[in-house]
């Protein structure tokens, strides 16, 4: 991958992620049981970035997504929530992916991302509300996080296996990794 | 479906189970704490705080009335709270996400309704009967 190709690819992924999170915000609340729960569709892009780019570049994709999604219709408090969630889930996903492809599949990576995103958000929420009982809400959110995480893992796996360019970038990335 | 089962690896399952257990951790600590301090005379009180400052305490145990009141944070930020017997809920709110309204009624100790845009927290606490005198002073 040349430098320009890499830059365009990062920008492309970030743009897709921003659009997905904006679309997701427009969907009115899919889960009646758990207020505040979201599908986390933008996690597809994070998964793809982790598997096709270096860690530094994947981090850039996540950062650009959070900043732009906030500028396009968020407030400073949503920025804090999604920022903390995204940071924690990115670190978790990166760590889990380190276990290697023979031990962990995309499902595990995306479920970890979904749950750690919830943990990060609720931690900030309980810090703002100054009562840690907000964390009691975690089991409900992580239950939904597991379901949507599995679905998103399957989607991302499908994309990685069937889109030709992604396959190519992934093999490039794995070559770099082993070298 | 077959493809799906081929995709799942052992560590996926281990991780998912670990994460489920982890998410129940705060719940476990909380019930442990509650069991330690639960006295015979404890009554439930809904404590309403706005921007970390306690504004109102509503005793819930033994309450048989229905009461509706407003919490006015500023001119355009208003939450309507309804106390119905031993349950409390936010009936309507002018906030953007409406998460507090969807949370519904709460009645058990430790449950919370949070309205983050208005920084309102309603928390149910269990207290012993003694400090009733102070509560009257605060709420008047």
From TrEMBL, chain A:
The chain crosses the membrane at residues 6-23, 35-54, 66-94, 106-129, 135-160. Pfam families: Hpre_diP_synt_I. InterPro entries: Hpre_diP_synt_I, Hpre_diP_synth_I. The keyword Membrane applies. The keyword Membrane applies. This is Heptaprenyl diphosphate synthase. Keywords: Membrane, Transmembrane, Transmembrane helix.
Automatic annotation (TrEMBL), chain B:
It holds the Pfam family NusG_II. InterPro entries: NusG_2_sf. CDD domains: Lin0431_like (cd09911). Keywords: Membrane, Transmembrane, Transmembrane helix. The chain crosses the membrane at residues 12-32. This is NusG domain II-containing protein.
């Amino acid at each position: 991958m040349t430098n320009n190709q890499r830059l365009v690819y990062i920008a492309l992924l970030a743009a897709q992620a921003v659009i997905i999170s904006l679309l997701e915000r427009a969907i009115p609340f899919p889960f009646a049981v758990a207020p505040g729960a979201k599908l986390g569709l933008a996690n597809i892009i994070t998964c793809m970035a982790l598997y096709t780019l270096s860690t530094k570049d994947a981090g850039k994709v996540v950062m650009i997504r959070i900043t732009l999604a906030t500028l396009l219709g968020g407030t400073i408090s949503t920025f804090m929530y999604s920022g903390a969630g995204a940071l924690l889930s990115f670190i978790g996903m990166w760590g889990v992916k380190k276990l290697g492809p023979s031990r962990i599949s995309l499902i595990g990576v995306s479920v970890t991302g979904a749950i750690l995103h919830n943990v990060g958000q609720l931690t900030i929420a309980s810090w703002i509300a100054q009562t840690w009982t907000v964390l009691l809400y975690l089991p409900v959110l992580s239950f939904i996080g597991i379901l949507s995480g599995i679905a998103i893992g399957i989607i991302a796996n499908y994309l990685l296996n069937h889109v030709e360019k992604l396959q190519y970038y992934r093999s490039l990335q794995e070559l770099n990794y082993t070298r | 479906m077959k493809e799906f089962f081929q995709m799942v690896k052992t560590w996926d399952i281990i991780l998912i189970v670990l994460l489920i257990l982890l998410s129940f951790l705060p719940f476990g600590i909380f019930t442990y704490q509650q069991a330690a301090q639960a006295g015979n005379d404890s009554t439930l009180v809904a404590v309403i705080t706005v921007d970390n400052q306690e504004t109102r305490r509503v005793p819930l145990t033994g309450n048989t009335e229905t009461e509706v009141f407003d919490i006015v944070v500023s001119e355009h930020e208003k939450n309507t709270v309804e106390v119905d017997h031993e349950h409390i809920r936010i009936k309507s709110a002018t906030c953007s996400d409406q998460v507090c309204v969807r949370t519904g009624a709460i009645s058990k100790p430790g449950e919370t309704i949070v309205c983050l845009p208005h920084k309102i927290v309603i928390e149910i606490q269990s207290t012993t009967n003694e400090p009733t005198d102070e509560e009257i002073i605060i709420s008047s």
